User: Which sequence fits this backbone?
């Protein structure tokens, strides 16, 4: 069956999860970076988009899903989702997933007698090739322009919104020259550490904490060289907030401006690195309501719509230790891990007793999905094996990346993404059990993400 | 443990906000697997190395294999220090 036949009468969800890499600009100043050993992981992450798929949906992913993983997911979620991938896997020389998929589909469409009749199509995020695919498969569904996607997703969109709305509040400042960076950063460093963020940075990779003028001078030297080479400087200088918790609000903006609101999720972030989500509890929602957060979030969504954007939106915000809310730190013009989590929770644990876990690990040979589920089952931990709570693994290919060597010569970790389905007091028991099960598999987990004890989390 | 290595351990200790026992670290300790330095902390690790040893590192050309163990990172630092030249630890 070719791709078009497979998509006929289906609800389609399309990766890649790492869409932001397609949005990176090459002509802008970047902060110092080391070669990444985890970039290869992002390429295998489309499998965690399964929760976005409806009952008989098709997930179009960069790599083919592990078949045991897909069978397990369908079994526990009561779905019949299938998978389609143009690329064969990490060794496929056609490394541009979206462009390869677009050109493959164009060939199929040219040879086909009729177009597939899709029930719906959703992309994690869009780039130019994704727009081609969406226009090809569902020409009647409007797609936002790339200009609007990039504008809304830029960290400058959030910084400008905050500057306009709260000129006197502690917040980030946009700078566009080394002099402005030095002046702004030095004045803020007087009050404490700061964070520099690339306006077009990908996730936490374009963020750097600076805690001294000496460190700032070193970074300025790095930046001056790039500016001299003609690169554009666009950075956000932000105070290093004394954080109590990170949270996100998930929305959908319809192409006719109707805004659907979804859940608020609390994130577990460590050093700008995401490691899990849970749904906001009633106490947190009540505090946010009191502080007018939701009205402000709708204003952000309206401004995004006015820029020409429609589609999924994720607003990243923070509560400080003193209880104040920083209502907007970043806007993501795409789906997000928190949204995927809330879609999955709605399905498997309507009572909301669940949390998402993302855990990197090292293993010399990688880890097969079937070995993990066998081990979890033998420990009585696997969700769906006749018990009301347990661990629902959401990653298959990601587990097996461990043992690869990245282009920079570093060993690639494996990554377990899993839902811990249990009341909060049992979630820690599940996590401890999981770590023991991994140890039995000769897998060394990095920094298990424990949640702080806090009535608002 | 030589001076270079004990300074490298001090840097790791500060980076991880004193999240491990200093005396549990030796030359064979793995920086990613055992100490738990993640990809986003690595750049701050190298910036701290620059500050401590008064160096300037070309970040983009660093081979991540130097982050394998405390020994390999110490060797990297010693190779970068103009007054020290290439050499082995321990």
Assistant:
């Amino acid at each position: 069956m070719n791709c078009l036949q497979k998509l006929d009468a289906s609800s389609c969800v399309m990766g890649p999860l790492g869409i932001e890499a397609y949005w990176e600009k090459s002509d802008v100043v970047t902060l110092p970076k080391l070669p990444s050993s985890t970039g290869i992981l992002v390429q295998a992450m489309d499998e965690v988009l399964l929760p976005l798929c409806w009952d008989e949906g098709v997930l179009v992913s960069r790599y083919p899903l592990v078949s045991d993983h897909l069978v397990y997911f369908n079994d526990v979620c009561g779905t019949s989702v299938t998978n389609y991938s143009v690329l064969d896997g990490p060794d496929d020389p056609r490394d541009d997933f979206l462009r390869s998929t677009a050109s493959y589909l164009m060939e199929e469409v040219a040879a086909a007698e009729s177009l597939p009749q899709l029930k719906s199509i959703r992309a994690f995020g869009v780039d130019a090739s994704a727009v081609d695919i969406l226009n090809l498969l569902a020409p009647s569904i409007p797609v936002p322009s790339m200009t609007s996607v990039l504008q809304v997703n830029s960290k400058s969109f959030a910084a400008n919104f905050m500057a306009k709305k709260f000129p006197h509040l502690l917040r980030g400042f946009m700078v566009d020259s080394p002099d402005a960076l030095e002046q702004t950063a030095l004045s803020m460093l007087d009050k404490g550490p700061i964070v520099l963020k690339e306006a077009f940075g990908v996730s936490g990779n374009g963020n750097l904490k600076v805690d001294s003028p000496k460190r700032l001078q070193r970074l300025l030297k790095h930046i001056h060289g790039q500016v001299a080479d003609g690169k554009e400087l666009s950075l956000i200088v932000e105070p290093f907030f004394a954080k109590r918790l990170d949270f996100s609000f998930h929305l959908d903006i319809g192409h006719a401006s109707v805004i659907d609101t979804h859940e608020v999720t609390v994130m577990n972030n460590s050093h700008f690195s995401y490691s899990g989500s849970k749904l906001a509890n009633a106490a947190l929602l009540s505090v946010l309501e009191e502080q007018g957060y939701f009205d402000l979030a709708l204003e952000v969504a309206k401004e995004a719509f006015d820029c020409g954007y429609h589609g999924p939106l994720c607003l990243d915000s923070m509560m400080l230790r003193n209880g104040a809310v920083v209502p907007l730190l970043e806007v993501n013009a795409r789906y997000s891990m928190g949204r995927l989590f809330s879609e999955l929770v709605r399905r498997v644990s309507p009572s909301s007793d669940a949390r998402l876990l993302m855990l990197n690990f090292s293993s010399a040979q990688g880890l097969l999905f079937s070995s993990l589920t066998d081990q979890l089952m033998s420990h009585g931990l696997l969700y769906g094996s006749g018990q009301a709570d347990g661990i629902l693994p959401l990653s298959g290919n990601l587990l097996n990346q461990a043992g690869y060597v990245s282009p920079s010569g570093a060993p690639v970790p494996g990554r377990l993404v899993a839902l811990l389905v249990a009341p909060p007091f049992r979630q820690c028991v599940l996590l401890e059990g999981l770590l023991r099960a991994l140890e039995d598999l000769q897998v060394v987990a990095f920094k298990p993400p424990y949640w702080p004890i806090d009535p608002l989390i | 443990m030589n001076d270079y290595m004990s300074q490298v351990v001090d840097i790791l200790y500060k980076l991880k906000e004193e999240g491990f026992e200093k005396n549990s670290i030796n030359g064979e300790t793995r920086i990613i697997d055992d100490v738990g330095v993640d990809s986003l902390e690595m750049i701050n690790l190298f910036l701290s190395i620059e500050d401590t040893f008064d160096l300037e590192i070309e970040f983009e050309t660093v081979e991540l294999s130097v982050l394998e163990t405390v020994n390999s990172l110490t060797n990297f630092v010693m190779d970068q220090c103009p007054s020290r030249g290439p050499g082995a630890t321990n």
